[in-house]
Design a protein that fits this description.
Number of strands: 9
Strand order of the largest sheet: 3-2-5-8-9
Number of helices: 9
Largest sheet: 5 strands, antiparallel
Length: about 260
């Protein structure tokens, strides 16, 4: 069975395509393409980049990318590489986050304060009723005036308290929007290791989480915005990894990249 490099090189030669054309189409540097065909994988920054480049190159040539990636895993990656790969079952990770947010909204201060205000209003009404029975008409006039003011004030306090929890929730989550101008490899994981996407994308995508770890195949044709603010990316044909939180973003090292 031909090796990975032979498969890629033979497919390229059969189609009459040179390295420069592949570089322009895939945005992978020519030196990395030659390294893939020669199976000099140590010339690439790491196994994540090797798998990404194999997948992109194979798709461009019309080959089965998954077959070549699995062959690379089996023949060139050590068991230690597999052991350090983070993995959280999607069925276990995301529901906990949604339930936690629902509990946070339901357990805020608004409903508790509203109940206390309602109890206070009832108490005032009972007190004024007693005063009215004892003091006659004068007490009844006081009863007509004071509950209205107290009830209106209580209503305003209740409305304010219901608005406060929603404001505090928004500061804990980052909304990330990825807008590719052309087909671009994209991987996004949460801070817990839940994989949200791992594929080539052509249409805008939006993700939410307290921490999002992003790997882009290149930054030549993609824009990122976090909570409506643009994320500064240096234009590069090489893969770029970033960790994005509500407080800001920072570059990831090769060991910290998602989807490894």
């Amino acid at each position: 069975m031909p090796s990975i490099g032979e498969t890629l090189r033979e497919a390229r030669l059969r189609q009459g395509v040179d390295i420069a054309e592949v570089e322009q189409a895939t945005k992978i540097r020519a030196k990395y393409l030659r390294a893939l065909e020669a199976e000099e994988f140590d010339r690439l920054p790491g196994s994540t980049f090797v798998r990404t480049f194999i997948r992109t190159y194979a798709e461009y040539l019309g080959l089965d990318p998954q077959l070549l990636v699995e062959e690379y895993r089996a023949t060139h990656e050590s068991p230690a590489d597999d052991e350090i790969q983070p993995f959280t079952p999607p069925s276990a990770a995301r529901p906990r986050g949604r339930e936690g947010r629902r509990r946070g909204l339901g357990g805020g201060g608004g409903p508790g304060r509203g109940t206390m205000v309602a109890a206070a209003v009832v108490g005032i009404l009972v007190l004024l009723l007693v005063i009215g029975l004892i003091g006659g008409d004068g007490g009844e006039e006081g009863a007509d005036e004071r509950p209205a003011g107290a009830e209106a004030d209580g209503s305003r306090r209740g409305e304010k308290s219901r608005g406060e929890p929603s404001g505090s929730e928004e500061t804990d989550v980052v909304a990330l929007r990825v807008e590719p101008a052309a087909e671009t490899y994209l991987c996004v994981e949460t801070g817990d290791g839940e994989e949200l996407v791992n594929a080539n994308v052509t249409a805008p995508e939006t993700f939410e989480g307290q921490t999002l770890r992003v790997l882009l195949g290149n930054t030549l044709a993609v824009e990122l915005t976090a909570n409506g603010e643009p994320v500064a990316l240096e234009e590069s044909p090489d893969p770029v990894g970033r960790e994005i939180t509500p407080e800001g973003d920072e570059e990831l090292s090769a060991e910290e990249l998602p989807c490894q």
